[in-house]
Each structure stands twice: as structure tokens, then as C-alpha cells.
Specification:
By secondary structure, the chain is α/β, with parallel strands linked by helices. The chain is built from 19 helices and 23 strands.
């Protein structure tokens, strides 16, 4: 019997046994698109789309069982045609491994049969052939069979779409093409940086990894890097009227061809928030079941859930946790009052090469300062835009001072000085924040109920005259309703960025601007900076001005102010509405939701860390 190779060998093998074999199917990806090969094989990334799901469905019959293939010597004695399904063999000489859908054996002649969901290639003379990626894949299978002492002169590809069998002769030219592909793929596997994306390729729109690859976005950033003068930074950052040293020439950017929108506008799956104390979460099949006092109140399909957020005393069963891990759905935990405490997530941070570069860059003061400047300047710019757009009478002295602080942030020479500039900008911005609120009617705050007082961890001490007014930012605890909303919103946004950083493969706890501290997701806080005003502050303003949150939704206890359970539920709705709102990316020109946008920005940061792009395009809005 020929030896079957376990594609997942146990740990602890010696160096020879622990050799990494290149899967034949990865050669298909390499010939089709080297970048796709790198993302799947090196970075370990994979996302299903309609095409891949259909392909999996077509393979179910083939993959139902694994047959043993008779040895070449035994097969020679038997001229009856044998069909062996789902057979895995390897080639030590070429360092490849192949899981073959079907092998037809008659005597010593073996023919691999590979199933493909598409249609064959039609040559000018009308004959049928396969595409190069498929030809190389089945040639690799033939090479493996030959090394296991079988004769193999041809392979067969069965195309489901047309139900046609196409025979592929195993010629010397095809073997040489395959050998070269193996050599180049192995060489590419050892590189830190992924190969450049395809340019305006028709292959990209239907690729399952297009939202991770970001081909046109990466190309745009790369072209920008190579054309802009050395001293300049992000495009579309500053307005006309600033000193030349901090202006960006937008002429080339505006004249560039608009990039294709290949990423989806928004995800169909949405976050789920549970903050009623005593709720429990279980699972039945592919459905989450939510109960309150042992009574089922809601069922949610797993495919509709992007993350599950639990606030306070909400229980979740082990079975539910396990299926959330299987489906790669993060489970986030908050205190009753909204403090982000941590999360349960499937085995993440698998891309050690990215994290190694992240740690290296974090030890480079020049890199940290450069990136931190971009983030802070982007934040101040977005704060200024918020006042321009939403203030009843935008104060020119505040707008002018914020503009000068953008210039000052560009000139600082240390993280400490930058923190000082950011602090001054925050105080200036929040000094005008009350002008963004349209409802300042005097009202009484509610007294904390037995359930709501848990959020404050103190006893209620009566009521105070209260307005939706704002003097300055305060926290821990927030001492007025607007600060309570801001603190809750920043906690939820920190959770979203923590989840996204971990999902992409970066360590959310090692930042470049926010210094490492035990338990603090510094990288998530870095990435939050430009989005604080655009997402959280905007959600707070909308929640108040649209009366989604009213003064009845707050409780006071001593100096602390918090939201009731009803108030938190209303704010989560306002927050998710903002995250689902479409916005135009100033550099790429297409519209996506804010939730999709933060994913794009984190993936671009990963490109920066690996050197694929050299400048990070911080998101700013006009």
C-alpha cells in the first residue's frame, strides 16, 4: 500500500518529518494570482463567497469518504478499473502534497480526476482545454503519483458547469511549468511582504478575498507614495489657506482614475447587544436563543450576528460559546455601566510575521511619532469639521485655533509634545461642544433604581437640576449626561477596534501613540483617534437631538451620572445607526459604512507595518 500523508502532522517531529509540503491546490492559486496565494498560504486567510460555497457543495460527494489507493505493485496485478476518492499523497523530491478528488487506476496507470465548478477554456480551433492554474494543479497531482511509482500520462478535469471532461496530457513542457511554479511559490512564501496586487484585473471582483486584499486601494496608496514629495503626508488632509509646509497637492489625486468599489458597502451581519440583567444566551443548531427568566424572548441566526456584546449579569452557555468560536464570532464583555472588560475570540493573532513587524516598528521612535502625528492631525481635523457642520453658530476663534493646532502637531518632535497638543485641541473642541446640542431644556434627573444603581456602585442621593449641557470632558465617573454618553460610546468603539485589530492579525495591546499599559488596548486606542468625533460624538449628538435618549434615561448617585438600561439600549441603537451610515472615502472615492471603513483602515495599517505601503492614509472627512 502506498503511504498516506497526514496533512496535519503532530507536533514534536524532527526536522525531516516536520517538513512543510506545498499543497497542489495552492499552486493553482499561485498561477492564478500570486497575491491570492500569499494571503491564503502564508497569511492563512480565507473567506467564503458564493463561488467558494458552490465549489464546496460540488465537492461534498467526493469528500464523503477517503479511499485507500492500492500500491503500484499491487495495482499491476489487477487490470480491473479502480476508483479511489479523496486520496492524499506527497512528493518528497518536489516538496508538494496533493489531495486528489478521484484517482482512476487500471493496472499501473493512474489518472487523477479533479472537479471544478466552472467551464473549460475554448481554444481558437474549437477544442477544449483547461486554464493554466488548473493545468498546473493536475500536473502536480501527476508528479505525486509518478513519485509513488504509478504511471501517469494524463489528468482529467471535470467541469460541473458544462459537465464536460477535459483531458490534460502530462508533457515535459507542463512539468517544467509546474516545477518553476513550485520554485517561485516556495520563494514567495519566505518573503515578508505580499506581492503587488493585480492592476485593474477582471479576476478581482469575484475573488473571495477582495475585501482583505484591497487591490485597488493598495495600488492607489503605493502610487501616492511614489509620486508625492518626501515631506508630505496624507492626501486631502488640510484645506487651502494653511502654510505650504503642511498643504497637500491634490491635483494628481483628483486626476487619477476612480478606483473600482470591490468591497461590499456594509456587512449583512450585525452586532447584538444584551444589557438586561438576568438574560441568558443558548444555542439550538445555527440559532442563538435568548431567554429572560427562563422564557424565550428572541432567536437570532448565527449568520446574522457579527459579534455578541454582553453587559453586566448576562449569562451565556458553554455550547453557545463553542459555536461562536467555531463561526469566528467575537464575544465581548462589558461591565453593567459599559466599561469594556475583554472578549472571547477564536484562536487569533496567527500571523506572527505581521506581529513581529508590529513589535519592531513599536521600538522605532521615528516611526511611532510619524504615525502618531497623522492620527492626531486627522482627529483634530475631524473635530473641526464636526463644529463646522453641527454648531448652531460655529465660533471662528475655535476653528482658527484648531487649525493652528494641526500645524503645531505637524511640528512637534516627541510623543509627549504631541500629547500636549492633542490635549489642548480636545479642551478647545469640547469648549464648543454644547453648541452642537439643540435640546437644553431643564429637567430633573431620575433616582437610580435597584437595577440601575449597579452601574454606579454607589447609593442614590436624590435628584439634581439637570440640562443637556456640557462644560468640559470628565470621566471615571462621568458627572453629567453628555459625558456619560461619551464614555459609553468610547468604550463600545474601543471594543470594535480591539476586535478588528485582532481579526486582521495585529496585537491590539501594542500601540504606537498610546504607550503600553497592562490591560489597555493601545493599538485600538490609536486607531480610534480619528473616529472619536466622527462616530461616537456624532452618535451622541444624534441620540440627543433626535430624542432617542431623553433626560429620563439618566440616573444620578452622588457625583456620578449613568444611563438606565433603557437609555443604554437607545444609545446602542444610535451608535449602530452611525456605524451603518455610508461615508465617502476621500482617497478611494467610494461609499462604505463606517464599520466597513474601520476594517479597511486597520488592514491598510497592516500594509504599512509590512512595508507594502509607506504612508498611512488616515481617514478624514470634508
Amino acid at each position: 500500500m502506498s503511504q498516506l500523508i497526514d496533512s496535519n502532522p503532530p507536533l514534536g517531529l524532527d526536522s525531516e518529518q516536520d517538513r512543510e509540503y506545498l499543497p497542489a491546490r495552492m499552486l493553482n492559486e499561485f498561477v492564478y494570482c500570486p497575491r491570492l496565494f500569499y494571503l491564503e498560504h502564508v497569511d492563512g486567510l480565507f473567506v467564503h463567497n458564493n463561488d467558494t460555497i458552490e465549489g464546496v457543495s460540488k465537492h461534498r460527494r467526493v469528500d464523503q469518504k477517503t479511499d485507500e489507493l492500492p500500491s503500484a505493485d499491487a495495482a499491476t496485478q489487477d487490470f480491473e478499473k479502480i476508483h479511489a476518492r479523496s486520496v492524499t499523497l506527497s512528493s518528497d523530491h518536489f516538496g508538494i502534497i496533493a489531495k486528489m478528488d478521484l484517482i482512476e487506476v487500471q493496472g499501473n496507470q493512474a489518472t487523477p480526476v479533479d472537479y471544478k465548478r466552472g467551464s473549460p477554456r475554448k481554444l481558437p480551433d474549437g477544442s477544449l482545454d483547461a486554464w493554466d492554474p488548473e493545468r498546473v494543479q493536475v500536473c502536480a497531482q501527476a508528479i505525486v503519483l509518478r513519485e509513488n511509482n504509478y504511471q501517469c500520462t494524463e489528468a482529467v478535469i471535470f467541469f460541473w458547469e458544462t459537465r464536460q471532461r477535459v483531458r490534460i496530457p502530462i508533457t515535459d513542457e507542463l512539468i517544467e511549468q509546474t516545477r518553476l511554479a513550485i520554485q517561485q511559490a516556495n520563494s514567495l512564501s519566505s518573503q515578508l511582504v505580499a506581492p503587488a496586487p493585480l492592476v485593474d484585473s477582471p479576476k478581482c471582483p469575484r475573488c473571495s478575498l477582495v475585501s482583505i486584499c484591497l487591490p485597488d486601494e493598495t495600488s492607489r496608496c503605493t502610487r501616492y507614495d511614489s509620486t508625492e514629495p518626501e515631506g508630505l503626508r496624507q492626501p486631502l488632509l488640510f484645506e487651502v489657506g494653511l502654510p505650504r509646509e503642511v498643504q497637500i497637492d491634490q491635483t494628481d489625486e483628483q486626476e487619477q482614475k476612480p478606483i473600482r468599489q470591490l468591497v461590499t458597502v456594509r456587512d449583512e451581519a450585525k452586532p447584538v447587544y444584551l444589557n438586561t440583567q438576568g438574560m441568558s444566551v443558548g444555542v439550538s443548531g445555527q440559532v442563538l436563543t435568548i431567554k429572560e427568566k427562563d422564557k424565550k424572548i428572541q432567536e437570532i441566526r448565527l449568520k446574522d450576528v457579527s459579534q455578541l456584546n454582553l453587559f453586566g449579569a448576562v449569562q451565556v452557555s458553554t455550547q453557545a460559546i463553542q459555536i461562536l468560536l467555531q463561526e469566528d464570532i467575537p464575544l465581548a464583555y462589558f461591565s453593567f455601566g459599559g466599561w469594556f472588560q475583554g472578549m472571547t475570540q477564536a484562536v487569533g493573532l496567527r500571523n506572527i510575521l505581521w506581529r513581529r513587524e508590529q513589535f519592531r516598528k513599536a521600538d522605532q521612535p521615528r516611526f511611532c511619532l510619524s504615525l502618531a502625528k497623522e492620527l492626531v492631525i486627522g482627529k483634530i481635523r475631524n473635530q473641526r469639521t464636526m463644529i463646522q457642520r453641527n454648531h448652531i453658530e460655529p465660533p471662528m476663534e475655535v476653528l482658527d485655533f484648531l487649525k493652528s493646532l494641526m500645524i503645531e502637531a505637524k511640528r512637534v518632535h516627541s510623543i509627549g509634545s504631541l500629547l500636549g497638543v492633542e490635549g489642548v485641541a480636545a479642551r478647545t473642541y469640547f469648549s464648543a461642544f454644547s453648541g452642537l446640542i439643540k435640546d437644553n431644556a431643564t429637567k430633573k434627573m431620575s433616582v437610580a433604581s435597584d437595577e440601575d444603581v449597579v452601574a454606579l456602585a454607589t447609593s442614590p442621593e436624590g435628584t439634581d437640576a439637570f440640562r443637556f449641557d456640557f462644560e468640559k470632558r470628565n470621566r471615571r465617573p462621568p458627572r453629567d449626561p453628555i459625558n456619560a454618553l461619551l464614555s459609553l460610546g468610547y468604550g463600545v468603539l474601543a471594543k470594535d477596534l480591539t476586535v478588528m485589530c485582532a481579526t486582521v492579525g495585529l496585537d491590539p495591546y501594542l500601540g504606537f501613540y498610546h504607550q503600553p499599559r497592562f490591560g489597555r488596548p493601545s493599538l485600538a486606542l490609536d486607531m480610534m483617534e480619528p473616529f472619536r468625533p466622527l462616530i461616537v460624538d456624532s452618535a451622541v449628538i444624534s441620540a440627543i437631538n433626535q430624542r432617542m435618549v431623553t433626560l429620563d434615561d439618566f440616573i444620578s448617585a452622588g457625583d456620578a451620572v449613568a444611563l438606565t438600561a433603557k437609555g443604554r439600549k437607545s444609545f446602542y441603537l444610535a451608535y449602530e445607526q452611525r456605524m451603518d451610515q455610508l461615508v465617502t472615502h476621500p482617497m478611494f472615492g467610494y461609499r462604505v459604512s463606517y464599520r466597513r471603513l474601520i476594517e479597511i483602515q486597520v488592514r491598510l495599517l497592516a500594509r504599512l507595518l509590512t512595508g507594502e505601503i509607506t504612508r498611512y492614509p488616515v481617514f478624514v472627512t470634508r
